[in-house]
Amino acid sequence: MRAFPVVMPSGVRYWTVLDEGLEVIAAADAFLRHVRLGRDGAELTTRSYAGGIALFLCWCARTGRDWRSAAQDMGLFILWLRHVPENGGGDQRAGGVLAGPGGGPVRGAKRVNGVLAAVRGFLSHAVLAGYAPAGVMAWLYELADDRDLPAQLRGEVPGLSYRLRARHRVSEPERPVDRAGDEDIVALLRVCLSCRDRLIVLLMARAGLRRGELTGLRRADVHLLPDSRLLGCSVAGAHLHVVRRENPNGAWAKSRRQRAVPVDFLLVQAFDQYVAEREDVPEARASDFVLVNLFRAPLGRAMGPDAINDVIRALVARAGLDRPVTPHMLRHAYGSNLMDAGAALDEVQELLGHASPSSTQVYLHPDPARLRAAVEQVPSPRLVFEVGQ
Questions:
Q1: Is residue 54 included in any domain, yes or no?
Q2: Are 198 and 342 contained in the same domain?
Q3: Is residue 382 part of a domain?
Q4: Cis amide leading into 298 (omega within 30)
Q5: pLDDT beyond 80 at 164
Q6: Backbone angles phi and psi of 359, in degrees to 5
Q7: How would you class 8 by CB atoms within 10 Å of its CB: exposed for 0-12, middle for 13-18, buried for 19 or more?
Q8: Which is nearest to 255 in space by CA: 244, 240, 239, 241?
Q9: Which residue from 81, 137, 187, 317 lies 20 to 30 Å from 58 (Cα-Cα)?
């Protein structure tokens, strides 16, 4: 079983699943097409889902199970996921895991939960489409109330409300988000050899853009005037718009909802310097994309998401950082800095383009210095007694 990309005549791309004979698995393909076209999901979402579904179907084939009823043994699938390498499926016994003294897991809890989410979606869609029996749903979900949910996720109507809760999930250790430190960001900015690379770092570290949002940015999305009403935009101050659209360079904004992100003077200055640099490359002038190739062929072509990885990787090596820094760690730095500066959860959620407050809650771990300052603000008992006298 393997995930495989599909390009439709319209140019829309999504990922499907092929069997050992390179035939499309109809039930998986129907679900993945629904995610891409029916739910307007991203291509990368279908790629992730297809990989998880391929693992599930591989486990079913290796262990002699029918995928339509294999959900009743989901615990064994989790065990298989944790201990069988990607390329280790060919030598597995009927139980799914080789006999022996055991070893460390080959997939972390987050990866396992991601695969389980893909499989639940696939099997639920298979039930609705008639590929699998209705009883599968009882193996996947149980009825639960909302008392274990954060207050922000509960409904406004008083009293208990109920929902379906996934039966299978691996506990993920709670740890602070892996963010780039302020000293890392400064080090990257110092070794930038171009205004474009400096703008890339700042757009992620001080505007929180994802790779797909960054490379999908058009010049018409950037409003740097104090008043943009002449441009038909009512948003006050310098800002940029993150818009979901189809892009020939593969860029994709994850959120379906358009958002406006305010930018500060550092980003305004960086944009001005980049525009001057870009004007020196005649091939770049006709492109509507903000970020284009300026130093290698084909000149003027819009940069893709993978090119952002290349830029940051080169900057990390040039700066001599003692740990790898990824583009998403720069976005995490933006979210963490907003929280540390006192921004409210809903404000950070809007600025980052999160659909759910639970995605933003990872930034609620306060900076240790702020924790100490909070403790020091509490008056001592002696002071309280003296004031009372």
A1: yes
A2: yes
A3: no
A4: yes
A5: no
A6: -70, -25
A7: exposed
A8: 244
A9: 137
Q: Would you put residue 156 in left (φ > 0), alpha (ψ -120 to 50) or beta? A: alpha
Query: Is the CB of residue 318 less than 8 Å from the CB of residue 339?
Result: no
Q: Alpha-carbon distance 217 to 209, whole Å?
A: 10
Is the same domain home to 187 and 282?
A: yes
Burial class of residue 210 (count of CB atoms within 10 Å of its CB; 0-12, 13-18, 19+):
buried
* 109-118, 145-154, 300-309, 358-367, range with the lowest pLDDT: 145-154
Whether 118 and 189 share a structural domain: no
Query: What pLDDT is stored for residue 92 in this prediction?
Result: 41
* Structural domains of the chain, count: 2
The residues with which 141 forms a beta bridge, in sequence order, are: 166
Are 140 and 280 in a shared domain? no
Assign residue 194 the CATH number of its domain: 1.10.443.10
Distance CA 347, CA 267 (A): 20
Which helix (H) or strand (E) element contains residue 184? helix 182-190
**pLDDT tens column, 239-280:** 999 998 888 888 888 877 889 999 999 999 999 999 999 999
pLDDT in tens, 40-56: 888 888 999 999 999 99
Give the strand pairing for 222-223 and 162-166. Answer: unpaired
Which two tokens mark 18?
Answer: 């092929």
Q: Are residues 68 and 192 in the same domain?
A: no
Cα 146-147-152 angle, rounded to 5 deg: 70
Determine the structural domain holding residue 47 and report its residue range. 2-148+160-166
- Retrieve residue 136's tokens: 């599968």
CA triple 326-329-330, angle to 5 deg: 95
Whole-number Å distance between alpha carbons of 177 and 359: 11
Cβ count within 10 A of residue 262? 13
Q: Give the Cα separation of 60 and 66 in Å (integer).
A: 6
pTM of the model: 0.71
